[in-house]
Amino acid sequence: MTNQITANIHETKEMTINMGPQHPSTHGVLRLEVVLNGEVVTRVHPHIGYLHRCFEKYAEAMDDYSKVIPYTDRIDYVSAMNQEHGYVIAVEKLLQLEVPERVEYVRVILAELQRIASHLLGIGTFGLDLGAFTPFLYCFIEREKILTIFEKISGARLLYNYICVGGLMRDVPDSFKPETADFVKTFRPKIKELNDLLSYNQIFIDRTANIGVLPAEVALNYAASGPMLRGSGVSWDLRKNDPYSIYDRFEFDIPVGTGEVGTVGDCWDRYMVRVREMEQSLVIIEQALEQMPDEGNVMEAVPKRIRMKEGEIYVRTETPRGELGYYIISDKSSSPFRVKVRAPSFVNLSILPAISRGALLSDLVAIVGSIDIVLGEVDR
User: Domains (ranges, CATH) in the chain?
Assistant: First the structure.
């Protein structure tokens, strides 16, 4: 009888639980169907579609290409400037439209400021997921400074509708250059503070090193991009490897995961790539501020009415989460015949089952946070 009881105690059965869709660690309305053996994850099934934006059909329903821009803001709502930038470049290429020099420099500066703001949000909430509350506040203090600059130029702090086809909605104020330069100067030492507070904190390292390891080969097979790919040691950045806009005029490095505190491609490497990318964004902004023409009409090339030729275009840009692609088909009408978006968060999320198998349930929180998804981009 005793042996029978002992045998029953040691029997294990798999249990299925749901994380979300309303769960703080899923960073939005995402449901993870998690199959557990004890506390060990055997399978994870991400269920998406709770925040479907219908972006592509909205875009095709607009009677003008310019009217699509406010909807691009809402794809990845924490890096709206980058979303606008990619779409506008695609339309301009279809139109074979030349953009003034001043416009190109302002766009690059805004894109890099947005990259820093987005990474600050991702880094801060990642620390929050793992129980570190203070770094979250430090990150948001710096992010607010960027949003204040955006508010002065566009009137908004989240969704901007500022970058338009052929130029900008309005010129930047006179305070733009000195305030941006001041931010670059004051933010650089803040990165060191963040590293001292969080990046090299032993508890944080214990929670992220050797967790959710994504080998380079697997990352490439899943078409990962952005910090997700570079965290696995692959030096690939569209700004450098396939330059668009005026990125070929700037000197900067591509940070990659090195396995500094654990295994190449773990949660810590993906986190640290974002920290180091902020440093490189500062380098780009400094060069752009120095080279930017002081004069120029930012509305000079903006068409009064977009008259599109028949054709198709695919343009990809490097957003904070990776490769954002816009595929547009024109049938010569005033509205796009077809718009397709290649969203990096959607692709990167598909890797979750592969890097979660065998992890503990508590580690799953760290793995999801290290992907840095935005659900508006996953569901588009």
Answer: 50-354+363-379 (1.10.645.10)
